[in-house]
């Protein structure tokens, strides 16, 4: 049984118990939410560690994704036709996990895709996702792709142990004229490939037509759907348009079809959205997709900051997570400019880890502020080592502290004599525990 089928049968699996322990929740609470489709555990049985129900030598530590849980962050990895090295991808993956990524996606389009994917799965302790259509077209034009080849690649990657697939089944032939009205058109690689296939053949999206067959493959290995938004807006001018929402309505129907066949489902969300439209987008996804966990790329809230899009994305991601998104896809400083390297991966992960944590605190998630309060106590006590250990990026904090200088009981921003923390501690020491004085009459 898949995690969804087990949950519906009233069974608490070892993976559900592990997720409950990681989240500080009751196992039955996790099971009930999975049965309703509100929580997903992306855990291919071939990748899942044996102690949590895997069928082999996998290393995956199961992870829960859902609105009532801690917001999760994904880091995209991947080679290009111009640069491919599986060892470098492993370095980037380990770096992403070190700095707080909860999952990774291999979006490789160049080199030995099978070898890269197998290498990452063998070393990944977190869920790993792919976009299977990238492999389908690596050595052939999209127009020549057949249904048999589509299903064969999906089956192969499922057997390898991929935990979740981005499947662009929601973009339909009738949506393409809507995209023609846009400023940026179709910016999703998967969406543009399928649009080209549909126009060339004069037929419907093959991923939509073969959706039930795809479900059956994914159910066998318990691969989760990440229903891709092939018509996500690629600039502010295209946000919240009819093309985007027409696809989202189709995806809502696919959510129900996938669940009916025993498959877990995540829904992917928009890319570029003005800040004031984010809440509406999150509410609409929840309504149309029956509360399926929402996986958003940003959203990027302005278009004029190339080189800083990890910041523009983190701003939107905080709002999206506060209003209901469960899973944040990081954006790096190289977005729109080039393939990210290790330093870009670190910057992107930390920015979106900050966004996720900010949303958890704002939502009042149990225990989410404990770390913030602990680092505040360390600051007041001038306990620099505790501050470093509690920081989201301890390495960066240590680098800045070392370069900036200062003594044990002050930093270089104010110096000893101007340090407000030292002065405040001295002034208020006598008031600790004393009742507050009544305000004078006006």
N- and C-termini, Cα separation: 71 Å
Number of strands: 10
The major sheet is characterized as: 8 strands, parallel, barrel
Q: Please, how many domains?
A: 2
Helix residue percentage: 40-55%
The gyration radius over C-alpha positions equals 24 Å
What CATH first level of the largest domain would be assigned? Alpha Beta
Number of helices: 20
| Major sheet strand order | 3-4-5-6-7-8-9-10
Low-confidence stretches: none
Describe the structure.
By secondary structure, this protein is an alpha/beta fold. The protein has two domains: 3-362, TIM Barrel, CATH 3.20.20.540; 370-429, no CATH class. Helix content is 47%, strand content 8%. It is built from 20 helices and ten strands. It has helices at residues 3-8, 14-23, 27-35, 86-98, 113-123, 133-136, 147-160, 176-179, 189-201, 206-209, 211-221, 242-260, 278-288, 309-322, 342-362, 370-380, 384-390, 394-404, 415-418, 420-428; strands at residues 39-40, 65-66, 72-77, 103-106, 128-130, 164-167, 224-227, 265-268, 294-297, 327-329. The strands form two sheets. It has an eight-stranded parallel β-barrel, surrounded by six helices. Helix 4 (86-98) packs parallel to helix 5 (113-123). The longest helix has 21 residues, at 342-362. The chain is globular. The mean pLDDT is 94.
């Amino acid at each position: 049984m898949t995690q969804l089928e087990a949950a519906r049968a009233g069974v608490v699996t070892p993976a559900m118990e592990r997720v409950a322990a990681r989240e500080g929740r009751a196992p039955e609470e996790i099971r009930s939410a999975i049965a309703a489709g509100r929580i997903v555990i992306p855990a291919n049985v071939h990748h899942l560690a044996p102690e949590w129900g895997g069928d082999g030598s996998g290393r995956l530590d199961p992870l829960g994704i859902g609105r009532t849980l801690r917001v999760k962050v994904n880091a995209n990895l991947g080679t290009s036709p111009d640069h491919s090295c599986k060892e470098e991808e492993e370095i980037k993956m380990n770096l992403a996990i070190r700095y707080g990524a909860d999952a990774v996606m291999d979006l490789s389009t160049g080199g030995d895709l099978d070898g890269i994917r197998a290498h990452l799965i063998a070393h990944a302790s977190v869920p790993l996702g792919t976009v299977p259509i990238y492999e389908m077209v690596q050595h052939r034009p999209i127009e020549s792709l057949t249904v048999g080849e589509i299903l064969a690649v999906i089956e192969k990657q499922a057997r390898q142990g991929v935990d979740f697939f981005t499947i662009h089944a929601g973009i339909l032939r009738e949506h393409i004229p809507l995209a023609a009205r846009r400023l940026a058109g179709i910016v999703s690689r998967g969406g543009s490939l399928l649009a080209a296939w549909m126009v060339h053949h004069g037929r419907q999206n093959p991923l939509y037509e073969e959706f039930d067959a795809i479900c059956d493959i994914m159910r066998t290995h318990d691969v989760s759907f990440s229903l891709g938004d092939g018509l996500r807006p690629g600039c502010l001018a295209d946000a919240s348009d009819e093309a985007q929402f027409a696809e989202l309505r189709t995806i809502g129907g696919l959510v129900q079809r996938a669940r009916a066949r025993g498959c877990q489902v995540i829904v992917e969300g928009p890319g570029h959205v003005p800040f004031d439209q984010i809440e509406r987008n999150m509410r609409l996804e929840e309504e149309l997709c029956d509360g399926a966990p929402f996986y958003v790329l940003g959203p990027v809230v302005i278009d004029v900051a190339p080189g800083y899009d990890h910041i523009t994305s983190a701003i939107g991601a905080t709002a999206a997570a506060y209003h209901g998104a469960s899973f944040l896809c990081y954006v790096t400083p190289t977005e729109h400019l080039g393939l990210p390297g290790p330093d870009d991966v670190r910057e992107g992960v930390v920015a979106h880890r900050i966004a996720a944590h900010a949303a958890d605190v704002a939502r009042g998630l149990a225990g989410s502020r404990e770390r913030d309060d602990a680092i505040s106590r360390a600051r007041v006590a001038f306990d620099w080592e505790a501050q470093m250990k509690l920081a989201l990026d301890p390495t960066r904090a240590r680098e800045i502290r070392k370069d900036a200088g200062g003594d044990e009981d002050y930093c270089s921003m104010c110096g000893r004599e101007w340090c407000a923390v030292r002065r405040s501690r001295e002034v208020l020491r006598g008031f600790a525990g004393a009742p507050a004085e009544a305000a004078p009459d006006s």
